[in-house]
Amino acid sequence: VQLVESGGGLVQAGGSLRLSCLASRSIFIINAMGWYRQAPGKQRELVATITSGGNTNYADSVKGRFTISGDNAKNTVNLQMNSLKPEDTAVYYCNAFFGNTLYWGQGTQVTVSS
Question: What average pLDDT does the segment 69-94 reach?
Answer without folding.
Answer: 96
